[in-house]
Amino acid sequence: MSQQIAIGMDIGGTHVRVGAFDSGGKLIAQSDASIASLKPDSGLSLIERLLHELLESLNSPALLGIGIGCTGPLDTVRGLINNPYTLKGWSNVPIVERLNKTFNVPVRLENDADAAALGEYWQGAGRDAKRLYAVTVGTGVGTSLIVDGKIYRGVDGSHPEGGHQLIDPNGPECYCGHRGCWESLISGLAISSHAQSTKNNKHLIVLAGGDPNRLDSRLVAEAARTGDPTAVQIMQKAARDFSLGIVNIISFFVPDVIVLSGGVMKSADLFLPTLKQTLKTPNPMVPFDRVKILPAQLGYYAGMYGGAYIILNEVT
User: Fold this and answer.
1) Is residue 304 within 8 Å of residue 4, measured between CB atoms?
2) Are 143 and 133 within 8 A, CB to CB?
3) What is the crossing angle of helices 229-253 and 217-225, to 10°?
4) Is 0.85 topped by the overall pTM?
5) Does residue 260 share a domain with residue 179?
6) Which residue, 159, 166, 279, 289, is the most exposed by fewest CB within 10 angstroms?
């Protein structure tokens, strides 16, 4: 009898990652490729090729299904990618139908934040937590709530967007149409934009090789660690806004654990002291001290793990 495997896949704005997992949940093979700038048909063809090559390398095992975590917006009910923001031109792309026809197995599509949260619940920092809230701070801000191993869904199966909670009504305009969303204040793009537009940033521009467009959040964080006053000010504000958002999340959901991930959270040392100080403020209604706040363990592969978990949890 052929070995049974589930495929987990993560589709981001620049890369697609695929992994083959045995029925016990062990990752046995993986592959990835750049998807940047590819139009939908070319991107889907690339994904199909990656999957065929991965299956052939395993001597054509019995495929149980394909679970996908993808950057949104998505229509998970109809199996469509509808994301012209980070996947240019990918509007109403029927990825589920296409892969189902190609491989003749169940195909499931979920928001990348939800898939990553499931991965961390299954084999990462939030393993077996009854209530897990995941926050990914990278180019944007993604959030997800997992309750008893299942994705929490809103009305019509909608995905809650913690990144668009209102923090500062006088803050910068967000692409969603509101002002002062959490994402518009703490994301990598937000920090970069703040650094590029603030006064007294000449030293930061020098660090960026004289090109303001290269002044990203990683460089600002590095400058803050060396004591650059402008960078320190920018990161302190981001840390305060980050802390307000986390306090809101705890107050709303009181999860057992909050898992932090994403490129900006590689500089968590610049955020967590402010968060810890904020959480020290007494609140008899909310047990802030009982909520664990942990770094993610699966990195860029969390969504891949989550996709496989969806399939294995469904068919085994």
Assistant:
1) no
2) yes
3) 110
4) yes
5) yes
6) 289
Same-domain pairing of 94 and 205: no
- The domain of 81 spans 4-119+300-315
The single-letter code of the amino acid at 115 is A
Does one domain contain both 109 and 157?
Answer: no
The number of angstroms, rounded, from the C-alpha of 210 to the middle of its chain's C-alpha atoms is 31
Cis geometry, peptide bond prior to residue 229 (ω within 30 degrees of 0): no
Provide the b/e sequence for 12-31 (b: ≥16 CB within 10 Å): bbeebbbbbbbeeeeeebee
Assigned token pair, 293: 């706040």
3-60 pLDDT per residue, tens: 899 999 999 888 999 999 999 999 999 999 999 889 999 999 999 999 999 999 999 8
Q: Which strand (E) or helix (H) includes residue 204?
A: helix 202-207
Q: Which residue has the tokens 């969390």?
A: 302
- Asked if residue 253 lies in contact with residue 219, where contact means CB atoms within 8 angstroms, the answer is no
Distance, in Å, from the CA atom of 246 to the CA atom of 293, rounded to the nearest integer, reads 10
One domain for residues 251 and 285 = yes
Whole-angstrom CA distances from 103 to 17, 81, 314 are 18, 19, 18
- CA–chain centroid gap for 8, Å, is 15
Q: How far apart are CA 279 and CA 156, in angstroms?
A: 34
For residue 89, what is the domain's CATH number?
3.30.420.40
CA atoms of 293 and 280, how far apart (whole Å): 14
What's the 3-state SS for 143-212? EEEEECCEECCCHHHCCCCHHHCECCCCCCECCCCCECECHHHHCHHHHHHHHHHCCCCHHHHHHCCCCH
Are the CB atoms for 115 and 302 separated by under 8 Å?
Answer: yes
Question: Exposure string (b/e) for 95-117, b if CB count within 10 Å is 16 or more?
Answer: bbebbbeebebbbbbbbbbbbbb
Q: Is residue 255 within 8 Å of residue 132, measured between CB atoms? A: yes
First and final C-alpha spacing in the chain: 17
Q: What is the pLDDT of residues 192-223, one digit of tens each?
A: 999 999 888 888 988 888 888 889 999 999 99
My answer on whether 189 and 102 are in the same domain is: no
